[in-house]
Fold this protein.
Amino acid sequence: MPTVIITGGTGLVGKALGHALLAKGYHIIILTRTLPSTDHSPQSIKGIQYAKWDIESQTIDENAIASADYIIHLAGAGVADKRWTKKRKQEIVDSRVKSCKLLADSLKTISNKVKAVVSASAIGWYGPDRIVRNPTPFAESDPADESFLGSTCRQWEESIEPVTQSGKRLVKLRIGIVLSKYGGALKEFIKPLKFGVAAILGSGKQIISWIHIDDLVQLFIMAMENETWQGTYNAVAPNPVSNKELTLQLAKSRKKFFIPIHVPTFILKIMLGEMSVEILKSATVSSQKVQKAGFQFSFPTIKDALTNN
């Protein structure tokens, strides 16, 4: 079977994707700054090979690039991991731009057989909904927002674009809020429920465009395997929901007593700083393009997604 390079392969999505590709018989190479010390390292996944790269020094294992048939690029500093200081914001941008540059340059200078590159992006590309009630969903053709995340996503996508100059098919997936029981946003939503509180953020009316991690993994695989896929696609479920609906549906799915409480906007601003703007932003994003391309969601509704998480 073909060989797939995954960057960001030890993250939430990368791990799930690696397991799914292994199950299909693919050979997996994960690019990492530090190789696992043993096969029993927490970073190590049985059956997966590791190879070194360093985006700061712009170095990469040439044998890995030479042996790959596909590259799935997920690497990037976590957007919500730390408060957005000036330094952290630069790390978020640089981790994406520099990693894309290293891949693009490597595909240009190293003899290889790579057929396609599938790169992560994010729905942070889009601004807030233009109208509050029944907004027109954002489509892939809409311009990038002028916010920090909008600018970051634009630079991210522009930085991976040069791989097409090496004759590679390029697919960019703008990922919504990923729902997984193993971490990410869902883990944060669940925390208050442990204390019997369903924490609704701000008004709770802001729309969240989400996707179940299993659907996201299958989207990446379809984008990689299907030669007709090219360009940008939104990786979101077809039924976005309000923050309030997601929170209450999550509470009900846990079958525990809870009290719904609105967390005031000013509290979120104090706690999160500039990041609170994104937490409170309403973004209704369309999934029509991936559906027209033949993708079928296993978890199209929030009830489906939370029942299976």
Q: What stands out?
A: The longest helix spans residues 86-109. The chain has a mean pLDDT of 94. The chain is about 35% helix and 20% strand. The domain at 3-176+212-236+285-297 is CATH 3.40.50.720 (Rossmann fold).
